[in-house]
Amino acid sequence: xxxxxxxxxxxxxxxxxxxxxxxxxxxxxxxxxxxxxxxxxxxxxxxxxxxxxxxxxxxxxxxxxxxxxxxxxxxxxxxxxxxxxxxxxxxxxxxxxxxxxxxxxxxxxxxxxxxxxxxxxxxxxxxxxxxxxxxxxxxxxxxxxxxxxxxxxxxxxxxxxxxxxxxxxxxxxxxxxxxxxxxxxxxxxxxxxxxxxxxxxxxxxxxxxxxxxxxxxxxxxxxxxxxxxxxxxxxxxxxxxxxxxxxxxxxxxxxxxxxxxxxxxxxxxxxxxxxxxxxxxxxxxxxxxxxxxxxxxxxxxxxxxxxxxxxxxxxxxxxxxxxxxxxxxxxxxxxxxxxxxxxxxxxxxxxxxxxxxxxxxxxxxxxxxxxxxxxxxxxxxxxxxxxxxxxxxxxxxxxxxxxx
Length: 404
Description:
By secondary structure, the chain is of the alpha/beta class. 35% of the residues lie in helices and 24% in strands. It is built from 11 helices and 17 strands. It has helices at residues 3-20, 22-33, 42-58, 112-115, 134-150, 174-181, 230-242, 282-297, 321-336, 351-356, 385-400; strands spanning 62-66, 80-86, 97-103, 119-121, 124-126, 157-163, 186-189, 192-193, 199-203, 205-214, 251-260, 270-279, 305-314, 343-346, 362-363, 367-371, 379-381. A 6-stranded mixed sheet has the order 1-2-6-3-7-15, sandwiched between helices. Strands 4-5-17-16-8 form a 5-stranded mixed sheet. A 4-stranded antiparallel sheet has the order 11-12-10-13, covered by helices on one side. The model has no long low-confidence stretch (mean pLDDT 95).
């Protein structure tokens, strides 16, 4: 039997198993969506973690539960989970370590699940977090369950990472994400697919900056010439920095916050700008960083100085030859199922950015088809669940053995 025919048979078997699990998937999804697990609700996130931990252990994973210390303001983030299952193909013989990543938190406040409970209308499911990311989280667990049932273990190790704070930028879990990713060969992000079914091949990176503008105070009516107006310098900087838009493809620069002065009769001595930069490549983020520094080094108002501070950097998930090869594996499986699979780039960031930042290839959007994330209209196409679960299982098998 030819390789394409064998793959079609394998995918067909995965599809049959995924279709049989669809009622259980919807029941489990309702249970997960009914738990309020906003990023700032540690108790709710931990309840989801309890559920996921039991499921992982049931399908043969060893699970490490990671608790994070409270932040300086006393906020406690929910726990993270790292589940591991050894395969039957050692790394020395071509086995690969595959990381699957999903998040357990949502953007919604406590009480949302009761006010807007899970429901299915026709083939569409609704509810807080149904698409982002409880649908993808559950699809990953279901795919792993199918692989275990089939005895498909031609990989070195499968690692399932469930994080508690993705919706607020993963401040607590970022070191765990990065340390876990550094040992993997491939990263699979379980965010749901785009509304048209596309996977995600690239995500922009984000860099946040604070510019502190220091001038010199003076009486605005008696001796304004003795002052150096930081507000005026900040205004010129705002115009100059906004003008960077359009200089590079897939780069945006936004001066989102401007603060200056305390009284109208004082020449403003202090101002602050907060800037967000989004770019598709690390090289472009560096270019914009240099341009910001160049503008800051030459303020338009004599006597004013400007200090540039980079507050945060979420690396881009770049469209690379290695991630394109992962996409080819996914497309071959989709073709066997009669599906044409596209790939999209997005400006939104997620844990996949942090995984990609460690240097391993990543493919995201491997959950079911969904949309309207972060809104009361958030939805999930339940007819897409069996196909997406089967495609994910097949992709894991294809990537797990480097000889295939």
